[in-house]
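INTERNAL AUDIT FORM
Audit reference: QA-55
Scope: verify that the stored structure record matches its stored sequence.
Auditor: D.O.
Record contents follow.
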Amino acid sequence: MCAADVVDVSVIIAAWKAAAFIEKAISSALASTGVSVEIIAVDDASPDETFEVLRRIADADTRVVALRLPSNSGPSAARNMGIQAAQGRYIAVLDADDAMAPGRLADLVATAKAANADIVVDNMTDVDETGRPLAATPFLKSADFAAARDIDLATWIRFNNPMSGGDTLGYLKPLIRRSKLVETGISYDPSLRNSEDYYLIANLLAAKSRMHYIPSAGYFYTRSPGSTSHRLKPDQTRAWLDAEARFVAQHGAILSDKERKAQAQRSRALRNVNQLIALIDTLKTRKLGASLRLMAADLHGATYALGVLSKVALGKMLGRKTV
């Protein structure tokens, strides 16, 4: 790509052991219509042939840039590297096993301009590994997201409440004005390997960025057994709590009453989930003493965790899912 070329959107793809499927993701981004694109794919030191695949694609198309981290550092570090190399007016995030419709980026850019938004998100379509839709309705199903709307910080926090059973905005893949990232200095938190998009957007909204949502569902989100989004581990949930503490320490004094209430509810929910995952971990390893200490340290979280485990046990007895 020539230095004089104008790039509307830099599509950032963090890749980890993605040799078998990343070409599909890149092809979908290259097929974008109505905007000029560059694709910056960052291999997170994969042990397979991911980087070789990326170099082959980049050699065949100058719109693709292949980068590689020297050691495995997680999706946040990979995306930060990609963003630093980006030339586009906007940054778009695409997961290595996902895809997008040809007109999606043009719709997002047009929306950003019309709404004077720094961040734009759209709805998603859940698909299986073959690209087949898994449901007749899009990912966000409630009336709250049936039409285009602004999303403020309180709304972003409120609709990112783990285990709530309702719509969750944190899965959405944003388009972000690159100048806003440069202006604020905000980047992905490299300590997070899960929920990293949530905290990036939360920090941008706390910095008074404007966010807009459109209900079109041109992002194809792959649900697969290997997805890291659905298998929580104790270190991940503890990282959430640390990230929450950092967010509150940085922004707590300027939060409105509405934002503060939503933040308190989310923090409590995260502590509950952390207690549940930690308790499951100690039970699996049959560390009864550790389990008892965990429950005694947070009785509210213990009540929640035991309630979930009881429902799971009941479901197994009845032969059906209860949570």
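Auditor finding: record pair retrieved intact. Residues 257-284 form the longest helix (28 residues).
Action required: none
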